[in-house]
Amino acid sequence: MTQTTPMRPTLDALQALDALQALDARDPLAHKRAEFLLPQGVIYLDGNSLGALPARVPARLECVAREEWGDALIRSWTANNEGGRDWMALPDRVAAKVARLIGARPHEVAVGDSTSVNLFKALSAALAAAAPTRRVILTDADNFPTDLYVAQGLNALMGGRYDLKPVPVADLATHLGPDVAVVMLTQVDYRTGERLDLAAVTRQAHAAGAVTLWDLAHSAGAFEVDLNGAGADFAVGCGYKYLNGGPGAPAFLFVAERHHAVPVALSGWMGHADPFEMAREYAPAAGARRFVVGTPMVLSLSALDSALDVFGDVDLAALRAKSLALTDAFMALLEGVPELTLVTPADHARRGSQVSYRHPQAREAMRRLVERGVIGDFRTPDILRFGFTPLYVSYADVYHAAQAVQDVVRELRG
Amino acid sequence: MTQTTPMRPTLDALQALDALQALDARDPLAHKRAEFLLPQGVIYLDGNSLGALPARVPARLECVAREEWGDALIRSWTANNEGGRDWMALPDRVAAKVARLIGARPHEVAVGDSTSVNLFKALSAALAAAAPTRRVILTDADNFPTDLYVAQGLNALMGGRYDLKPVPVADLATHLGPDVAVVMLTQVDYRTGERLDLAAVTRQAHAAGAVTLWDLAHSAGAFEVDLNGAGADFAVGCGYKYLNGGPGAPAFLFVAERHHAVPVALSGWMGHADPFEMAREYAPAAGARRFVVGTPMVLSLSALDSALDVFGDVDLAALRAKSLALTDAFMALLEGVPELTLVTPADHARRGSQVSYRHPQAREAMRRLVERGVIGDFRTPDILRFGFTPLYVSYADVYHAAQAVQDVVRELRG
């Protein structure tokens, strides 16, 4: 899986729909597709932006609304905790499910709030964990904008104490001086799909005395992440992309156990050691639960909880193998199309679960693709982005999507 | 409505169930009860903690899950904005519905995140709006704990720059010196149900040169609030109490237009002027939209959106009149019960929409009441709390609830 020489099937073999259908026939994850409600006539290659609807979610929402909220009302906060349904413990139960996917222990994960708010929590905690003399926050100049905005807002609130330094990710090493407090990176670039070696970069940052903060927005649920194996410090991730938790689903925060004693900047009652004691002084709950802030959004959180059960029987190595095979196939089928400039690394180790191309008329090309039922997305200025979610994208989908891309590119050429 | 001499029907009249049923028969809000799904055999007096389920919400959730998420997928972010359904504008549409209830203009309200997170946004903004030489945050020592925790966490993050001063609310005036930056108060005390005069306290704070931050958790949807009429500066409120938005529903933030230029501490991409421009520098959106941070939790936010439609035809003066009549009746029916010490003001102007009593065995008394289907709640150390939500609580409910309270108190006496 981590070889650096790409192994790609030949174009000839892949061009045959038969060959791809044969891959579907022996796909160990093929049965997972039936666990999603996908619209007819659509090939959905945008699960990296919004994961598809797991079939089990509508019934769970109905139950949470009518039974837990409507019938049990306020009693649902504490009732039925043996049955694993009490709302007070819901954030912890969801955290445990996320933990398995990212190589964390359950008490190192807190679920709730948006990714942006979690970035704020994580960065303030990471800065508190760093040596106080260090004043640089090192980040990727091409990081997802909200990561940069959150750092800008937090730094201004702290009186401009830090120097936020966005640099090209390739030059990171040269900037890792003794002034760096936190290295804040997104593991998979949202535009190019390039994947960083989380363990290697973490080692590098630690060797330079810095604390790491990883944004796993395009990692969690796309492939296995091993935060503790890598010795990572802090991480955040998104609930609504590869975790399929629904639009704007609650996000997660990882705080390695050794950092649990840092001050909690967003200190709310649901992260208090005893919320209903109604004490005047904040006293943090045990573990990462202290990073839960206000009352959890139970409807959205229950959808995520239910969606995560889709991963219950999924072997993450098989998930990664299929992701690479799907993206390999797509890249092979579009190789040599002159208008398309591949920006996703061919090297498996450096690839996430998406394939992106530059195209001079990318916005219009994507509009036409969506019209044909092939849903990927456009990212400014000229990127066609296609996400491959191994739980519900088939090899045959790859074939038909590539055909549609070729057709649209040909049309625009004429 | 604001007379200071309480006008309460006599005990004799109220003791008759007939009399109360007659009030139900001419209640202009009686038809609203059918818009909620209430469990059989329950009198629900805890809508001040978790509002009941509006009947329209399950269908809306089903539609959002199956159609907007499942079928339209990523297209729902922008599709159908003429139909008022695009997710990008959903926070703004909900904000407009909240604005009407609190005397704000739509562009002064931002909806999303928990109340605690909104307190953090509001307090950081209020401190930025205050004169920089002022270093005291004045608050009620009996404020809801999360309000205190959030202030503690924010102040620590800002290097302990401020002095958080919790004082008895009755002594507020004596502490309103030239050092006070922000007066942060909850309008209705969550334990006693005592209501502060928002306009008078705001005037007092302004006269002392301070900025006001109001927590409307037990105000919004319980009675009409007129923030702009009072010249209020900042406010937050809860979506899941009197607004019936569901467990942990998104909360709201009010920022008076004159303060819109303050720096945004929690600056995320959904509050950016052009989120999909993917610019590296944060540039705030127009109005209070800048206080939206990350991707909105669409499922929870849609439930709140739908729940707010219940208020569409509600006259807020009639709502307040019924709230006072319900609480008057309850207080009258329990007058003279020796174990019950009323802690809610009899004065209409000083009363929210709840009635609270101290009782030496309050926890056990509430347990027995809930067992009998009368759901209020216990608040430490010895408070029995009963919330009266005029949209779905009837006068007959008041009678039966008071009977149950008398029975339980009698049992515990024996």
Automatic annotation (TrEMBL), chains A, B:
N6-(pyridoxal phosphate)lysine: residues bearing it: K241
Pathway membership, UniProt: Cofactor biosynthesis; NAD(+) biosynthesis; quinolinate from L-kynurenine: step 2/3; Amino-acid degradation; L-kynurenine degradation; L-alanine and anthranilate from L-kynurenine: step 1/1
Cofactor: pyridoxal 5'-phosphate
UniProt keyword annotation of Hydrolase present: yes
Leading EC class: hydrolase
Residue numbers binding pyridoxal 5'-phosphate: T115, S116, F144, P145, T146, D147, T186, D215, H218, Y240, W269, T295
Hydrolase among keywords: yes
GO function terms (MF aspect): kynureninase activity
Keyword tags: Hydrolase, Pyridine nucleotide biosynthesis, Pyridoxal phosphate
EC number in record: 3.7.1.3
Reaction(s) the record says it catalyses: 3-hydroxy-L-kynurenine + H2O = 3-hydroxyanthranilate + L-alanine + H(+); L-kynurenine + H2O = anthranilate + L-alanine + H(+)
Alphabetized NCBIfam families for the sequence: kynureninase (TIGR01814)
Listed PANTHER family: KYNURENINASE (PTHR14084)
Function summary: Catalyzes the cleavage of L-kynurenine (L-Kyn) and L-3-hydroxykynurenine (L-3OHKyn) into anthranilic acid (AA) and 3-hydroxyanthranilic acid (3-OHAA), respectively.
Oligomeric and partner information: Homodimer.
Family indicated by similarity: Belongs to the kynureninase family.
Name by which UniProt lists this protein: Kynureninase
Organism lineage string: Bacteria, Thermotogati, Deinococcota, Deinococci, Deinococcales
